[in-house]
Amino acid sequence: MTCGGIYERLAAAAVRGHAAREGLPLPVSLDRTPLEALTEEDLAALLDLGRAWGVKLYRFKRGHESMPRVRQILGFLRGVRPESLLDVGSGRGVFLFPFLEAFPGVPVTSLDLLDYRVDFLEDIRQGGVDRLTALRADICACPLPEKSADVVTMLEVLEHIPDVQAAVTAAVGVARRYVAVTVPSHEDDNPEHIHLLTKPVLTELFQNAGCGRLHFSGVPGHLILIAAIGEEA
Known about the structure:
7-stranded mixed beta sheet, elongated, alpha/beta, Rossmann fold, single chain, 8 helices
């Protein structure tokens, strides 16, 4: 039996990538079958192996897609149908995993500063999600070419970055159509939150980056910004 409370195919991909990285044996049918062709029994077998090997399958728990800020960004993306996505600071996959499931044909690049998070996402890619690219990089010194991503998402990220103007300018430079941002809407006790980015502050940051068409909305506890780039502006 599979565990319906998780993103099973993403979890199975992580198990296969973990096996490849650690040199652990997998039956050929579980290792070589395309991810989308795995049966329920195959998925169950891979998840059982992952538990035995200590792969942290709880990371793939469902439910984040129903969080108001995630649901709103996914709804926006369904409307604009991105051809590619750069997700800055993917972290634990709160947004990334629902996106990968909801947009099965869209190439995604994830940028993160932490090696273990990049390794984790690389396991998923190696395990069969080959449209996912994980890069260890700082958005302030983004290694991607200008206008190389259709949409850039920065969800619960900017409040952590010391040089927030450099991050915004880089995101605007990489995006062809839109930059989508969520930030906390009020002060909190998280010591890693070093900015409170209000609507006026975000407006100034994006205008300084050459982007003037901004749409603000919000959900409880979070401010949401969609910045239109290029022809969309």
